[in-house]
Structure formats: C-alpha cells, structure tokens
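Deliverable D5.2: sample structural annotation.
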Amino acid sequence: MNRRTEILRRAAELFADKGVANTSIEHIATAVGIKREAIYYYFKSRHDILLEVLLPSSKSLLTGMRNIRRMDMTSPEKLRAAFENHLASFDPTYLEMSIALREDHFFADPSKLGQLQGTWDEYSNHWTELIREGQERGEFKDGLDPKMVAFGILGMCNWLSRWFDPSKGTSIDEIIDTYFTVTSNGLATTSPDIAAE
C-alpha cells in the first residue's frame, strides 16, 4: 500500500469511527504514523481527503446504474440488478459507503460538495426513472409516485450504513435477496383488504 492510499484508508477508518467533524489531520497523521505536515504533501485539507474517500465509490454506483438502465432486461430484472449494484458496494468498501451515507458533508469549497451532490442526484434520478419505466411497461404497480418509491427503496438500502458489519454473519447476498423480495412481492401472502383511513 503506497503512502497516499494508506492515508485515505486510515482516514476512512477514522471518519467511520469518529465522524468527519471529530477527525483532524493530526488524528489521520497519527494513525498513519507520520508527521502532520507530511499529510499536506498529498492533500491540501481534511476535506480534500474526504472527497477522495467518497467520490470513487459514488461514481462507481452511478456508472453501474447507467449500465443497468441501458440493459435489455425486464424492469424487475433491472430492479434486482440495481439492488445488487447498490448493496454490493457495501462489501468490501463498506467504510466508504457508511461515511457517504451517514455524514452531513460541509466542504469549505462548495465545488467539492457539488461534485458529490451532482453524482448522487443523477444516481437517485436513475432509480426514479427505473420505477417509472416499469410502470409504463405495466411491470410495476401503477398509481404510485415513482420518486417516492425510489426514495423509499434507497432509504431502506442506505440504512445499512447504520447496522451492517461484514464480520457479523449476515451476507450482502442475503440482504439483496430479502430487500428485492420485499420490494417486488411485498410481505403479505394474500392481498389484504385494508382501507386507507
């Protein structure tokens, strides 16, 4: 592992454990075993480190979703692939995903936050359009707001950042199967007659 990669890895571990706001350049330098000044040879600030920790995994998610949208598959197949694309990113890069989804990121340079926000916005839009496309094809239930459905799914998936630990036994494949089944088939074994109040 080269020094730049080591700095990013140790920083990711600290950001996940302590939070970005509670992690200083001094903390990162100590974790790497170098002087504080040596960090600045590679990065201008803590937020430059944060951006480089978050941006690759965020761009990877977006690239995967763009590819899924272009595939010649049914909407349920695309939905399953989208779950796999999103949830598989927690393993092995669960630290980066946890940081991306748990933190409120305040960058001194708004352009840095803009790079992340633009990526995340396009990514969530692809989820919305996947749902909308499925409704138009008659493969997903009509009458539901596709954006609300997409955000509900992403909220469910992103909550992994609060509880998922790859060392605790629950596999990503099991989570993908469960979340896809719940989303595509629901929980009830029959159609319940429940009137909205």
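Annotation notes: The mean pLDDT is 85. Residues 54-187 form a domain with the Tetracycline Repressor; domain 2 fold (CATH 1.10.357.10).
The annotation will be released with the project's public dataset once the embargo ends.
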